[in-house]
Design brief:
This protein is elongated. It has two domains: about 150 residues; about 250 residues, no CATH class. About 55% of the residues lie in helices and about 20% in strands. Helix 7 packs across helix 9.
Length: about 425
C-alpha cells in the first residue's frame, strides 16, 4: 500500500512538473535557451533568449552592448537559427533587435528575428533549425514555445512545441490551415484584455457612470433614481460610447483614417477630466449620451491605434475587427454591471456624495497626470509606479464593489434582522432607500 501511495505521489509530481514546465521556462530560471514563436499570415517572429555566458563560450564573441559586439551577435543569430519550408527552401531572416539584458537574473542575449517564407509558400508549416550554443555545449538545450497564432490557437498561454539539443537541432512545426473562428475568438480576447489593461478607458467609464443613480435638480446632483432608471441611464451611456468608438475604430482600420497618436491620447485623458468634473458639478446634464458618443469617437481612434500596433492584418480584417469590438463591449458591460450595481446600492446611503466626489477627484487627478505625461513626458519610474498603484486601486475598488453588492443583497433579503441593528443608521443605511 505504501508503495502504491509513493507511486501515485511520484506520478502526481511528474504531471505537476509537466503542467508547469512552460511557466518555469517563461520565468527563465535555468541557464538554457528559449525561443518564443509568433505566427502571422505572411511571416513568423521569433524571440530568442540565450544566456550570455553560454553565448560567449560558443561564439567566442564578447557579451557587450557596443555596436561591434551587437553586430557580431546579430550575425551569429542569423547564421545559427533559421526556418526551412517542407520543400527544403530556406526562409529569409531579418534580425530586428539584439541586446544583452538582465531581467532579475543573469545577463541574457535577447533577440527578435523576423522570418519570411519563399514566394508562394505558406507561413504555417516549417522546420525550425537551432544550432546556437547546443553544438558547442553538449548539455545545453533550447525550449521552443508557440506564444501566439491568431489563426490556429486560442488564448495567450504559450504551448511547448519541442526542444533542441546537441544531436537533435530541428523542431517541426505544422500548424495546419488558419481558422477564421480562431481569429475571431482571439480578437474577442484581445479586446477584453485591452479594456482590462486600458486604465484610461476604465477611468472614463467610471467617471461617466458616477451620476447614473442621481437626478439633476435645481442645478445640482441630488436625490436618487430607482434601480430601473439607473440601469437605463447606464445602458444609454454605454450605447453612445459604443456607437462612437465603433464608428472610428472601423473607419480608421478599414479605410485608413488616422490622427497622430500623441494628440489622440491627450484628448482621451482630457475626456476623463471632463467626465470627472461633470460628476462633481453638472456640465452637460441630461446630455450625457451625446457626450459619451462624442468622446467615444476619440477613444475609437485609440483602440484602432492599439490594434494596428498589435498586428496590422487584424486591423484590416472585418471578422477580427468585429471580434475585437465585441470583446471591448463584453468586458465593458461586465465591469459596468458590477460598478453600477454597487453605486445604486451606495446611492441609497447618506455618504454616497462622499463616494461620488472622492472617485471623481481620483479620476480628475489621473486625467491630469496622464495629460501632463503625454504632453511633456514624465520620468519612466514615476509613470510605472503610478500605473502599478492605479492597477492596485482598481482591483481594490472592484473587490469593494462586489462586497457592497453582497451586502446589499443580504440586507434586502434579511430586512427584519437588518432592522434590529440601529447602529447601521450611523452610516446612513436604512431598511428602505430614501
Amino acid at each position: 500500500m505504501a508503495g502504491t501511495r509513493i507511486g501515485l505521489a511520484a506520478r502526481l509530481l511528474f504531471f505537476w512538473v509537466v503542467a508547469n514546465f512552460s511557466a518555469l521556462a517563461l520565468a527563465h530560471v535555468t541557464p538554457n535557451s528559449e525561443g518564443q514563436l509568433d505566427l502571422y499570415d505572411d511571416r513568423v517572429e521569433l524571440e530568442v533568449i540565450i544566456p550570455a555566458a553560454e553565448y560567449s563560450f560558443a561564439s567566442e564573441h564578447p557579451a557587450a552592448n557596443d555596436a561591434q559586439s551587437l553586430k557580431l551577435a546579430e550575425t551569429y543569430l542569423s547564421n545559427q537559427i533559421g526556418l526551412i519550408s517542407p520543400s527544403g527552401n530556406r526562409w529569409t531572416t531579418e534580425i530586428y533587435e539584439a541586446r544583452f539584458v538582465s531581467d532579475a537574473g543573469p545577463i541574457d542575449l535577447r533577440g527578435r528575428i523576423v522570418l519570411r517564407p519563399p514566394a508562394g509558400e505558406g507561413a504555417r508549416s516549417f522546420d525550425l533549425v537551432w544550432n546556437a550554443v547546443v553544438r558547442e555545449v553538449p548539455d545545453h538545450f533550447a525550449l521552443v514555445m508557440l506564444r501566439s497564432d491568431w489563426g490556429g490557437k486560442i488564448g495567450s498561454q504559450s504551448e511547448v512545441l519541442g526542444s533542441v539539443r546537441n544531436g537533435n537541432t530541428v523542431v517541426k512545426v505544422r500548424q495546419g490551415r488558419s481558422s477564421e473562428w480562431t481569429r475571431f475568438a482571439n480578437a474577442v480576447r484581445l479586446g477584453a484584455d485591452h479594456i482590462l489593461q486600458g486604465l484610461d478607458h476604465l477611468a472614463f467609464l467610471l467617471a461617466l457612470v458616477l451620476t447614473a443613480p442621481l437626478l439633476f435638480q435645481e442645478g445640482k446632483w441630488q436625490s436618487r433614481k430607482d434601480l430601473g432608471p439607473s440601469i437605463r441611464s447606464v445602458a444609454i451611456l454605454i450605447s453612445g460610447f459604443t456607437v462612437g468608438h465603433s464608428a472610428t475604430l472601423i473607419a480608421a482600420s478599414l479605410w485608413g483614417w488616422s490622427l497622430p497618436s500623441g494628440p489622440v491620447e491627450v484628448v482621451i485623458s482630457l475626456s476623463i477630466l471632463v467626465a470627472a468634473l461633470h460628476a462633481l458639478k453638472p456640465i452637460f446634464p441630461q446630455r450625457e449620451a451625446f457626450a459619451a458618443t462624442a468622446f467615444g469617437l476619440v477613444h475609437g481612434l485609440g483602440f484602432a491605434g492599439f490594434l494596428s500596433s498589435t498586428d496590422a492584418e487584424l486591423s484590416r480584417n472585418i471578422v477580427t475587427l468585429l471580434g475585437f469590438n465585441l470583446g471591448i463591449e463584453l468586458m465593458q458591460l461586465a465591469i459596468a454591471s458590477v460598478v453600477v450595481s454597487a453605486l445604486v446600492i451606495l446611492a441609497s446611503t447618506r455618504f454616497y456624495s462622499w463616494v461620488r466626489v472622492g472617485l471623481a477627484l481620483v479620476c480628475a487627478f489621473l486625467a491630469l497626470f496622464w495629460t501632463f505625461d503625454r504632453l511633456v513626458g514624465l520620468p519612466i519610474n514615476l509613470v510605472e509606479a503610478t500605473d502599478a498603484a492605479i492597477e492596485a486601486l482598481s482591483q481594490y475598488l472592484l473587490v469593494t464593489a462586489f462586497i457592497v453588492i453582497l451586502f446589499g443583497i443580504y440586507s434586502r433579503t434579511n430586512l427584519k434582522w437588518f432592522g434590529r441593528f440601529q447602529w447601521f443608521s450611523r452610516f446612513g443605511l436604512s431598511r428602505r432607500p430614501s
